[in-house]
Amino acid sequence: MTFRKIAVGLSGGVDSAVSAYLLKQRGFDVCAIYMKNWDDRDEKGFCSSDREFEDAQHVADRLKIPLKEVNFVKEYWNDIFTKFIQEYEEGLTPNPDVLCNRIIKYNLFFKCATERFKCDAIATGHYAKTSFGDFLENYRGDEDVKLLEAADTFKDQTFFLSQVPQNALRRCMFPVGSLNKKEVKHIALDIGLKSIAKKEESTGLCFVGKRTFPSFIAEFIDDKPGNFVDIETGRVLGQHRGIHHWTLGQRTKLWGPKAYFVYKKDPATGTIFVAAGTDNPVLFSDIFYTAEPFWVRKNPLDDRNLLECEFRFQHTKPKVDCVVFKANADGSRLLIKLAEPMRAISPGQFAVFYKDGECLGSSRIFNSGTGPMGNERDECESIWKYEVGVKQKLSAVAC
């Protein structure tokens, strides 16, 4: 393919701004697109997305590239946010950013760019790389593309791209994938985008904004009080306003010889079980189930239905060695065994898998050994030790 016209997702931030600049410097015909995914005006009529669009327009004007706005508010609400709220009510810990990339940016945006605006490829400001190169200079029409970790491992965002489909990834450029954040900001300053380079970096969920998460979530989920119960003694230690205000591993304000931390939540009764001590063994897990996986390329499990790789469930945490096993015949469940226990692995989060710098894909955790259905740990251990038939692997992962 010849890639000439490129649609860059321009968010108003420094990473997408520098991406647009680098594309133009390489001689591409650049079309900037601002995606409006959320609309939340406060009592004074201010909407943060309006400010972001103004910043995107400032970048486009400075770079002398056209800017178009596309509205995905309805799709984001129906396909992502309503499910996010439902899962919080069910006691899960969802990650909407992974779904936003899969459903909005690398599906709807990709289709809009290639079909409506007739672009040859898309580009985003994510810190990631692919085997086709930062600018698709190594594109091959006869092979799948690999999703690779960025040069800046601290800023690497492949975690959030772990469910991007091949059709979009094959025609996606990551212009800042080979740069670190400091270099990106220097470029922005050099080209006269000081206000963009000095912007406070956005973190957290886009729809929360500057509000605290508890105050935000209270707008959509009614409080349903329940008890805090000591997992070891069964004593009621206090009351809470609702399980949606709490996540696994979170410290409570309960009084005791040690601080108490959330161990698991029971949506049926509204009970939150707590454990004393931040290093309490019940807060750690090294074996758990996940749902059907999404593989960026082909299924990486070998002919024994095994995969030795690395795992993380939070994008800022170090990766841990693991062994992945297909837990049932149709491959709709995986069993994960970690080389070392990790704290507060929560149902609803994504298990993301890596090997040799490649992001292989991800799968949602539905039993972590520390959350709902935590009593299935014995079942996990039984399957691993006796049904898998690979005892030689157990020593390698310190089972």
Short description:
The chain contains ten helices and 18 strands.
Total count of domains: 3
The CATH architecture of the largest domain is 3-Layer(aba) Sandwich
Instruction: Work out the oligomeric state of the chains in this entry.
Output: single chain
- Quote the average pLDDT: 89
Strand content: 15-25%
The CATH class name of the largest domain reads: Alpha Beta
Catalytic activity: 5-taurinomethyluridine(34) in tRNA + S-sulfanyl-L-cysteinyl-[protein] + AH2 + ATP = 5-taurinomethyl-2-thiouridine(34) in tRNA + L-cysteinyl-[protein] + A + AMP + diphosphate + H(+)
Domain tRNA-specific 2-thiouridylase MnmA-like C-terminal: 286-365
Pfam family, one: tRNA_Me_trans
Keywords: ATP-binding, Disulfide bond, Methyltransferase, Nucleotide-binding, RNA-binding, Transferase, tRNA processing, tRNA-binding
